[in-house]
């Protein structure tokens, strides 16, 4: 899944906030920031404190705050969100790390390391939010890999006869993004069908020609000469080879 560049606007953000270096009680300080975050009305936020993480050398990481922030419609750049958080939390910008993303539920699930069992697991109950219903919906969303999504997408396209049917399968919001893909695949399918139909027609005509040629030869050449007539024998050899190569087609036709 691609990640927007920093100068692009996005609806979804992953945020990490560190306590002040001189803080005597980092957990308490971050808990205060949590309470301030969930009072915000401008965006949906889900946040948790990580105080049991370890680095690659198995040393404890400093206590930090993870937050997932989602805007309902108005997109923001990374710089805009950085300024917004710094102001509303009254902290320095260098305490905040922000990553724009196209994901939503995966970032929420990362708050507890739900999809990464090698990391410390945190309790869902420890997540604080300003929208419990949306948090639960996002957190319980099933993870589907890109390969699975692509397979489902193209299955829906192939099984949908019209754009309206495709939209009903994908949902209006998703279908907007796939409109061009739908049209291209349908066009490609139509070309394939026409191509196969053309080949089948030509093959059927060729088979009819062979059968007619075989009938004429069998009626023209006397039975006592069929074993010695080179033209007939060569035709039977070619005809037999053709029938072997297209056995399924012949069995279907005859």
Give a written overview of the molecule.
By secondary structure, the protein is α+β, with helices and mostly antiparallel strands. The chain folds into two domains: 12-139, 3-Layer(aba) Sandwich (Replication Protein E1, Chain: A); 163-253. Helices cover 52% and strands 11% of the residues. It contains nine helices and five strands, in the order E-H-E-E-H-E-H-E-H-H-H-H-H-H. It has helices at 26-37, 78-89, 105-110, 132-139, 146-159, 163-170, 172-220, 230-245, 247-253, and strands at 12-18, 44-50, 64-70, 96-101, 128-129. It has a five-stranded antiparallel β-sheet, sandwiched between helices. The two termini are 52 Å apart. The relative contact order is 0.10.
Determine the structural class based on helices, strands and strand pairing: alpha+beta
Low-confidence stretches: 250-254
Q: Provide the helix percentage.
A: 40-55%
The name CATH uses for the topology of the largest domain is: Replication Protein E1, Chain: A
Q: Which architecture of the largest domain per CATH?
A: 3-Layer(aba) Sandwich
Radius of gyration, in angstroms, nearest whole number: 33 Å
Main-sheet strand order equals: 4-1-3-2-5
Helix and strand pattern: EHEEHEHEHHHHHH
Report the count of strand segments: 5
Name the CATH class of the largest domain: Alpha Beta
Distance between the termini: 52 Å
How many domains, as an integer?
2
Which band does the percent of strand residues land in?
5-15%
* Separate helix tally: 9
Kindly report the average pLDDT value: 80
What is the makeup of the main sheet? 5 strands, antiparallel
């Amino acid at each position: 899944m691609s990640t927007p560049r920093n100068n692009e606007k996005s609806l979804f953000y992953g945020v990490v906030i560190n306590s002040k270096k001189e803080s005597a009680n980092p957990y308490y300080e971050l808990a205060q920031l949590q309470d301030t975050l969930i009072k915000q009305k401008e965006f949906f936020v889900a946040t948790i404190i990580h105080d049991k993480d370890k680095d690659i050398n198995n040393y404890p990481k400093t206590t930090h705050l993870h937050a997932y922030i989602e805007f309902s419609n108005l997109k923001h750049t990374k710089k805009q969100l950085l300024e917004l958080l710094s102001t509303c939390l009254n902290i320095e910008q260098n305490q905040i790390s922000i990553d724009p993303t196209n994901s939503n539920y995966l970032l929420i699930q990362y708050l507890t390391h739900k999809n990464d069992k090698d990391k410390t697991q945190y309790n869902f109950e420890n997540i604080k939010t300003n929208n419990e219903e949306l948090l639960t919906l996002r957190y319980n969303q099933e993870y589907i890999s890109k390969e699975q999504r692509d397979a489902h997408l193209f299955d829906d396209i192939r099984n949908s006869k019209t754009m309206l049917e495709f939209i009903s399968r994908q949902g209006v919001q998703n279908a907007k993004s796939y409109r061009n893909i739908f049209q291209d695949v349908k066009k490609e399918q139509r070309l394939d069908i026409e191509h196969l139909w053309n080949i089948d027609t030509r093959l059927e005509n060729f088979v009819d020609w062979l059968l007619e040629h075989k009938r004429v030869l069998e009626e023209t050449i006397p039975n006592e000469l069929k074993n010695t007539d080179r033209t007939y024998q060569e035709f039977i050899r070619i005809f037999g080879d053709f029938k072997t190569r297209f056995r399924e087609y012949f069995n279907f036709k005859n």
